[in-house]
Amino acid sequence: MAHAERMAHSNAHQGEPQGGGVAVPLTAFAVGAVVAVLLGVFGKLHEPTLTGASSLGFDTLLDMKVALSMVIGVLALLPLGPQERLRERGGAKGTRTPNPLLAKQVRYQLRHGPLGCC
């Protein structure tokens, strides 16, 4: 098969819709409905308990929430330390004098890019 014939053959199928039409959404809807019904039946047949599935070794659920919240808070604030030190020193090494070739390329792309803003 020549290159032109292969391209014509592959282009002929581009306009056709991909996938299974409505079969996939209907299948997903049916599976979701079955899961909802099974959860409802399970809830009616079993007596609910007030204990959680797992408290990760803590005495109460509240103790677990407090401990995990503290860990998340420390992990969220941890990156701020190095950032402040870099700001005090005037930036990371090499950030004050950018690569001249890279700056030239960025200026060219801004001038001749699709937006043509500069």
Q: Give the helix level as a range of percent.
A: 55-70%
Average pLDDT reading: 74
Q: In percent, how much strand structure appears in the residues?
A: under 5%
Distance N terminus to C terminus? 48 Å
Write down the overall geometry.
flat
Number of strands: 0
SSE pattern, N- to C-terminal: HHHHH
Alpha plus pi helix count: 5
Uncertain regions spanning at least 5 consecutive residues: none
Structural class: mainly alpha
Q: Biggest sheet: strands, sense, closure?
A: none
Q: Radius of gyration from the CA trace?
A: 30 Å
Could you please describe the fold and organization of this structure?
This protein has helices spanning 3-12, 23-45, 61-77, 80-89, 100-112. By secondary structure, it is mainly alpha-helical. The longest helix is centred in the N-terminal third of the chain and has 23 residues, at 23-45.
Short description:
With 118 residues, the chain is an all-alpha fold. The chain contains five helices and no strands.
Q: What distinguishing features does this structure have?
A:
118 residues; mainly alpha
